[in-house]
Amino acid sequence: MSLRRTKVVAALAGVALLAAGLTACSSERETTPEETSGSGGAAVAGGELIGIAMPTKSLERWNKDGAHLEELLEDAGYETTLQYADNKVDQQITQIQNMINLDPAVLVIASIDGTALGPVLQQAADAGIKIVAYDRLINETENVDYYATFDNYKVGQLQGEFIVDALDLDNAAGPFNLEPFAGSPDDNNAKFFFSGAWDVLSPYVESGKLVVPSGKAPASNDDWASIGIQGWLSDTAQSEMQNRLNSFYGSDKVDVVLSPNDSLALGIEQALESSGYAVGTDWPIVTGQDADQANVVNMLAGRQSMTVWKDTRTLGDQVATMVDQIVKGETVTVNDEETYDNGVKVVPTYLLPPQVVTADTVQSALVDSGFYKASDLGL
Ligand code: BGC
User: Which helix or strand (DSSP H or E) is residue 183 part of?
Assistant: First the structure.
């Protein structure tokens, strides 16, 4: 760890100790060096410090997101503190409280539970700190100033359309066996992903062209959480898929799995392998999202059919621009002032476009753009 980083870790540890003193009974683990990074010691004095709260290091994308945004802001002359919360809501709240104590100008937050931050964001607002919701909307509070994300509904739509094309649902006789999954019930994005996909696929379920042998087809878009995988965990998706295959498939095969993201797809692919499915014979269509490295490798090996790639560098670029505009008192660039109602207000949003990547476009989309090195993917 560099000296600059050590200094901020030490400063944050001091704040953490203070917070621990104030909440003497709390057994909550405070920030550790692994969870924390940031730029120079001047950050503690306040002014142009930007706090970045990310949900977890356990998913590849958040590591990339955090590192990229931190680098952009530091290059633009800001001080930063970046914290990861191990997918634990209380830990994220404590981290945000600690950041508020450092008097940042702006907090950028990728929430774990978008409904749990109201009280801590009230503290931030009272201290004059602006809030940008990153990737996931923060709900039920007026204290979220801007939101930047990829078009989440479009992500699901791209997955649904991919399935329609891959199975040629408008022409093929079918029926095809579908198993749908949805994301974490506490993640505001998950309902958009599901709605986008289900608006495309449900007419084929209604007509009988797609059948869901497990019966795990939500009655409507609003029931998506009934098939949600809490915390987006690969292991949970794996056991759910394994249960469905064991209980509802005899000699019958699953033809297609709607997986909302790559972490779920990894678990689903593991369950398929354990059940004897083989690439080149009966391996089904499996969708995904994020272009995580392991999933891109799986796509190249024929184990995953597509991923919806969200170039997180462009999200970081956009958020860094918004932060800079906020700090300078300029008009903040948004392109959607209708869609993202958080229950209290419509949050001004900047939406970025997601795109489909398949094995055929890995090189042109992911390698040529520098998102991955060819050697990362075994190319
Ligand atoms: C993000 C996805 C990600 C998922 C799990 C969602 O909020 O938009 O990109 O796969 O969380 O971390």
Answer: none
Q: How many CA atoms does the CB half-sphere of 242 hold within 13 Å?
A: 12
Question: Using one digit for the tens of pLDDT, what is the confidence trace for 331-372?
Answer: 999 999 999 999 999 999 999 999 999 999 999 999 999 999
User: Is the Cβ atom of 189 under 6 angstroms away from ligand 1?
Assistant: yes
pTM given for the model: 0.87
Looking from the CA of 136 toward its CB, the CA atoms found within 13 Å total 25
- Probe residue for ligand 1, chosen from 187, 312, 319, 355 as the CB with the greatest number of ligand atoms within 8 Å: 187
Tally of CB atoms within 10 A around 64: 17
What backbone phi and psi angles, to 5 degrees, belong to 63? -65, -45
How is residue 50 written in tokens? 């930007």
- For the Cβ of 261 lying below 6 angstroms from any atom of ligand 1, the answer is yes
Which contiguous run of DSSP H or E holds residue 360? none
Mean pLDDT calculated for residue range 41-46: 35
Mean pLDDT over the full length of the chain: 89
